[in-house]
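Researcher: Good morning. I'm working through a list of sequences from a screen, and I'd like to move beyond sequence-only analysis. For each chain I'm collecting a predicted structure so we can compare shapes side by side. This is the next one on the list. No need for commentary yet; just the structure.
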Amino acid sequence: MAISDWPAAERPREKLMARGPEALSDAELLAIFLRTGIVGKSAVDLAREMLSTFGSLNALIAADEAAFCAVPGMGPAKYVQLQAVIEMARRALSEQLEQRDVFNSPGAVRHYLQLKLRPLRYEVFAAIFLDTQNRLLATEELFRGTLAQTSVFPREIVKRALFHNAAAVLFAHNHPSGIAEASQADQHLTQVLKQALGLIDVRVLDHFIVAADQVFSFAEHGML
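Model: Good morning. Structure tokens for this chain:
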């Protein structure tokens, strides 16, 4: 049955307008993005099939072009549209963080990091440099490693903090393995960086680990 034949209250677009995007399932939101289905499948049917194929919305968003375009009915144009949507979300969240104290928008920080780091298949260590009012100055990917590890050099981070005239910094790295837990090495590195930056009066406010649908906060777990 085509979506146009569904009761109005059950159609994804009408449901969103009446109840807000939070009321929609992942498949319904994806169906709105897809706009149309393919022969024999509505947009919702196709969305459900895609989510089943990739395993989750997160995995679908992180899929490379080849994997995305391998789905019947998808192609380079739709892949480009998806990447544009993701990038617009990143930039919108970045603007929020530039205009207000990041600690007044903890959800925005997490969502920003998830959009930036979660799709990556390799490990990245990034820093968010903040001014004296905890507003975003810059986000930099400082080091890139393999699936298992990355090398982080404190002196380089100190140099970047001085370059931005930062008063504080948030660190973040991803765990492509999908486990959002702080290892002993993560904890040791955080303390080394905290001590190095303390010498130039730059505060380390948190260190986040991004994995799958989770974000682990060192500050929340008393590790700073």
